[in-house]
Amino acid sequence: MMMIDKLAYSSPWRYKSTHLKSCFAIGTLLICVAVRSFLVSSVILALMGCLTVTYSQASLSRYGKMMLWPLGFLMLGTIAVFFDVAGEPMGLLHVAIGSKYIVMLTESLAYGARLILVSLASVSCLYFLILTTTMPDLMDGLKRLHLPWLVIELMTLIYRFIFVLLDSALAITTAQNCRLGNRNLRTSIRSMGGMLAALFIQAMGKSSALFDSMEARCYEGRIRVLTEHRPAAKKEVLLVAAYLTGLLALAVFCHMKGGL
User: Are residues 11 and 118 in the same domain?
Assistant: First the structure.
């Protein structure tokens, strides 16, 4: 079981209404993406971080490490946003390349910082949902929303099979490291190629074994999982509604102030 699943199953909010938690997280996400405000994104990032650390059994250091993954991806993805091409030197920074200049403008820097902050706040909303809600509960919520059953089953199988492949990849990598398969760059590249080739073969074998086991358990085209419906309390519904209303009011205020 992956750490995400362990944290979700041990969360004190695991038995809260899935629909309520989804409305809370997705509503916050939509407001964050729609407004793209520094203030709103900062509030959402701080609030979701506090709630996730408090109610998901994830420590602050672990949550910080989890946020570093998307942050690194965002930094690499927004480098091009920070710079522009101009015919003359301008902005905060400029580097001459032939007759053109690579410049960093104040506007592009602010736009890139806003993009990173909004993206991190959006990721924090998703972290809150997946670290307080188990996958069977999420799938049950999608079923109640009448999402096509084929899409739900594909999501379930892909999600579970990712864990199988990760376990196999970690086992192969550990075995290679024990045999000094990463002592230099050349052997590391060769070990990576061997790991991917072995992983592909194991994936084909495990998928065939998975289908055989499903057939042996009278699989007839649909995966049926026992779930428990947990209705939300009226007090919780009112609190979420009040929170989303207040956040929306703050978002409208920031939008009227020019995207503060």
Answer: yes
